């Protein structure tokens, strides 16, 4: 089979497009790398990885091996959760010397349940530019296949490993109206899906996205009650890396009453627009729905005052 990459003119055109952008020196480039399939790298990521002076990597051995697959060899510097602050100081010094540095994690987008965020803060605090390059993330990959229930979402990442702490966090999230996205490791996947059903009830939709972009990729959508049973039915279903997307809490009268109470208080000091905006931030509910509700409450208030 002929690969489109064997068309030299196309490859040249794509790399010229990547080259058209300016890539300032003294800047940190936050570069997403694949979450499984090595081909899931952008042309621009390859261009920048080829251009930078060094690569800040969560695991330098992994990254050197990945870069070798693309025919790139660069000096690497380790930046992981245990040294991110001190490594950031060294990297800022290199940037001040007008280097270009790429920041990558082991897989996917740096800073998403991965090191990178503190380095970004340090670079920005030093008054230097941070330039993000979009690419793979398990978060967006799973959401893209979740369907309508994943439309509005909150990213939670890994839940606490200890049962009691996990249950506390899930209790806090139980009435959150948007879909919730979790990352989970294989040895806790059954336990976590069970805890989700206990905290949120049996009925909500669940997407179990496993080994995305890899040979044994599977996406299974079911209810929260069915999740643990489905996983336990076959040991292979518990292997690999997981993203869980859980449908948000249904609107209840209790939630509406709570929103009205919050909006009424905010409307004592604020405009309808500001009250809706702040209530949306505090509750996670839709800003438009809260605006409509706030408008009604404000009109009712005006009527009462007549
Ligand atoms: N920075 C990464 C990203 O952008 O998605 C996430 C890194 S986090 C340390 C690793 C977790 O992401 C895994 O435990 C798993 O929950 C999720 N993950 C990463 N790759 C995955 C894949 N190919 N399929 C499913 N989940 C994946």
Automatic annotation (TrEMBL):
Superkingdom is: Bacteria
Q: Where is the Tetrapyrrole methylase domain?
A: 28-226
Check the record and name the Pfam families matching this protein. RsmI_C (PF23016), TP_methylase (PF00590)
Keywords for this protein: Cytoplasm, Methyltransferase, rRNA processing, S-adenosyl-L-methionine, Transferase
State where the protein is found. Cytoplasm
- Classify the main location: cytoplasm
> Record's PROSITE patterns?
RSMI
Please tell me one Gene Ontology term that the record gives under cellular component. cytoplasm
- Stated EC number for the protein is 2.1.1.198
* InterPro entries associated with the record: 4pyrrol_Mease (IPR000878), 4pyrrol_Methylase_sf (IPR035996), 4pyrrole_Mease_sub1 (IPR014777), 4pyrrole_Mease_sub2 (IPR014776), rRNA_ssu_MeTfrase_I (IPR008189), RsmI_HTH (IPR053910), SAM_MeTrfase_RsmI_CS (IPR018063)
What this protein is called in its record is Ribosomal RNA small subunit methyltransferase I
Which species expresses this protein natively? Candidatus Paraburkholderia kirkii UZHbot1
Q: Which gene encodes it?
A: rsmI
């Amino acid at each position: 089979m002929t690969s489109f990459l064997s068309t030299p003119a196309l490859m040249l055109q794509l790399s010229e497009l990547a080259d058209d952008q300016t890539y300032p020196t003294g800047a940190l480039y936050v570069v997403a790398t694949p979450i499984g399939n090595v081909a899931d790298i952008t042309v621009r990521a390859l261009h920048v990885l080829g251009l930078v002076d060094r690569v800040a990597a969560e695991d330098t051995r992994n990254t050197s091996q990945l870069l070798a697959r693309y025919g790139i060899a660069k000096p690497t510097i380790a930046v992981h959760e245990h040294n991110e602050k001190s490594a950031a100081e060294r990297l800022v010094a290199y940037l001040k010397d007008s280097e270009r540095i790429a920041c990558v994690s082991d897989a996917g987008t740096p800073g998403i349940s991965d090191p990178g965020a503190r380095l970004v803060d340090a670079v920005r605090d030093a008054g230097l530019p941070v330039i993000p390059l979009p690419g793979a993330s398990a978060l967006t990959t799973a959401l893209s296949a979740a369907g309508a229930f994943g439309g509005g979402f909150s990213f939670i990442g890994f839940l606490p490993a200890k049962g009691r702490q996990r249950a506390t966090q899930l209790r806090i999230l139980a009435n959150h109206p948007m879909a919730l996205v979790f990352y989970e490791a294989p040895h806790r996947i059954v336990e976590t899906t069970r805890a989700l059903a206990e905290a949120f009830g049996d009925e909500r939709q669940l997407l179990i996205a496993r080994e995305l972009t890899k040979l044994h990729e599977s996406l299974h959508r079911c209810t929260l009650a069915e999740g643990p049973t489905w996983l336990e039915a076959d040991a292979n279903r518990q292997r690999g890396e997981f993203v869980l997307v859980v449908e948000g809490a249904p609107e209840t009268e209790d939630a509406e009453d709570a929103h009205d109470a919050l909006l009424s208080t905010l409307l004592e000091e604020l405009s309808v627009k500001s009250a809706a905006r702040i209530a949306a931030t505090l509750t996670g509910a839709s800003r438009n729905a809260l605006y409509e509700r706030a408008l009604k409450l404000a009109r009712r208030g005006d009527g009462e005052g007549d």
